[in-house]
Amino acid sequence: MTSVRPDGLLHVVRPGALTTVQDTGRPGWAHLGVGRAGALDAPAARLANRLVGNAPGAALLETTVTGCAVRPDRPVVAVVGGAGCRVSVDGRPVAWGAPVRVPAGAVLDVGPAVDGVRGYLAFAGGLVPEPVLGSRSTDLLSGLGPAPLSEGDTLPLGEPADGPPQGPVPWPGAPAELVLPLHPGPRHTWFTPAALRTLTTAAYRVSPHSNRIGLRTEGPALERAWDGELPSEGMVLGAVQVPPDGRPVVFLNDHPTTGGYPVVGVVAETALAGAAQAVPGTRVRFVVRA
C-alpha cells in the first residue's frame, strides 16, 4: 500500500471511549510478532465502504460503545454503520446506515451504541494516514498504525471516487445469542472430558472485560487433565485460549501472535463478526464442528 496524497483533513472533536483507524489489517507478519489488526466486524466495514463508493479495504473509523464526533474541512459523503446509534450533522438528525453529505466545517456526531458495540464511519475517499507494513490499521497490542483518536487529532482524507454513493441497505443487528462454531484442538487433550462437555453445554456470557484482543467469557471454569505449562506457540485468529482461571477467551484481531496457555479449539473466522458486536452479558454457545 503506497502513500496517498490527502484531499482534506478530518478533525477529531470527540474521540469517544476507543476510536481507531482500521482497514483489512496486515496479515502475514506473525513470524515477526506482528498481528493482523483490522476491523473486528469486517462485513460491516466492507458495507460502509461500499455505500460511499470506496474499495472494500479502504481505511475507516471503528468506534467502541460511545461513538465519536468529527469535523471535515471539506464537504464529504459519510456513512455510519455497524452498531446502531443516533447520528447528527451540526445537531440535526441524519440517517444511520446510509450515505449522508457532511458540509465543510460541520460536526458529524455519532452517538452511543444502542444495538451492538462497534460502529464504523466510512468517508468517501477513505482515510489515508501513512501505512505501516501495508496497512493503516491501529494495532493496540503492537502499537503499530495510528494511535487511538484523541481530541484535536487530525486525519487525512483521500480523494473520493467518481461513482455516486449507494444505499440504503439492510444491516444486521447485534446477536441476541452468540453461537461460535468450534474446531477442537490443538490442545483439547489438556482438558478433562467433563471440561469439554462443559464447554459445549454451559451457559457462558460475554464479559465486560472483552476488547479488541479477545472476547472474554463468564461461566464455569474448564478443568485441566493435568498441571503443567506449554512452551509458547503460535496463536491464530479465533483461537480459544484457556488462561489459569479456566474461562475461555476467544482471540480477536489484536491478539498476540504467541502464547503459552492451552488452546482448546479454534472458532471459524466467519463467525467472529458477531463477537465484535456482542454486548456484555450476551449468551455464548460453543458448538463443536468436526
What can you see in these coordinates?
- The chain has 290 residues and is mainly β.
- The protein contains three helices and 20 strands.
- The chain has helices spanning 42-51, 193-201, 272-277, and strands at 8-14, 20-22, 60-64, 68-72, 76-84, 87-89, 92-93, 100-102, 108-110, 115-123, 154-157, 177-184, 204-206, 214-218, 233-234, 239-241, 249-251, 258-259, 263-267, 283-288.
- The strands form four sheets. Strands 12-19-16-17-14-13-20 form a seven-stranded mixed barrel. Strands 7-6-9-4-1-11 form a six-stranded antiparallel β-sheet, with no helix packed on it. Strands 2-3-10-5-8 form a five-stranded antiparallel β-sheet, with helices on one face.
- Strand 16 and strand 17 (249-251) form a beta hairpin.
- The model has no long low-confidence stretch (mean pLDDT 94).
Describe the SSE topology.
Elements: E1 8-14, E2 20-22, H1 42-51, E3 60-64, E4 68-72, E5 76-84, E6 87-89, E7 92-93, E8 100-102, E9 108-110, E10 115-123, E11 154-157, E12 177-184, H2 193-201, E13 204-206, E14 214-218, E15 233-234, E16 239-241, E17 249-251, E18 258-259, E19 263-267, H3 272-277, E20 283-288
Parallel strand pairs: 12-20
Antiparallel strand pairs: 1-4, 1-11, 2-3, 3-10, 4-9, 5-8, 5-10, 6-7, 6-9, 12-19, 13-14, 13-20, 14-17, 15-18, 16-17, 16-19
Which H/E pattern describes the elements? EEHEEEEEEEEEEHEEEEEEEHE
Task: Give the spatial strand order of the biggest sheet.
Answer: 12-19-16-17-14-13-20
Largest sheet: 7 strands, mixed, barrel
CA radius of gyration is 20 Å
Class based on secondary structure composition and strand pairing: mainly beta
What's the pLDDT, averaged over the residues? 94
- The overall strand count is 20
Helicity, in percent? under 10%
